[in-house]
User: Fold this.
Amino acid sequence: METAVPDNDITQERTGQGIGCPGWNFLYHTLSCCLDREAENIVVETGTNWGFSTITMARALIDSGLRGHVYSWETDAANHQRACDNIASAGVASQVTLYHGSVAEGLGRFAVELDGSIRFAFLDGSHQQDEVLREFTIVYPK
Assistant:
């Protein structure tokens, strides 16, 4: 985080928006442009890592004032725990559900059980073509 913007409260005070703006502009604004004003905005992320993009997307939802939730998957246990801590510290835990384990299995189960549609998907868990295509194949019908 930038020295002049040490936490979300100061960012909110100085800019009127959450840490997603200006910190992670592209992701924040891309998601913001895709939100549906009438429906629940389901956001899916693979590859939580330490939770920074997750926080950014949750802030975009919060700042929009629209209904929505971020669901994110991480395979590495240490990264998952660090993401949980970071998301709690950022004050966005109520907007986020984190999963630890296999993305293909967890995301597949999630998509089957989801009563509704996925509004936005950030597929960043693996950069291997076959795995990205597998994730895309799961989320695209939704």
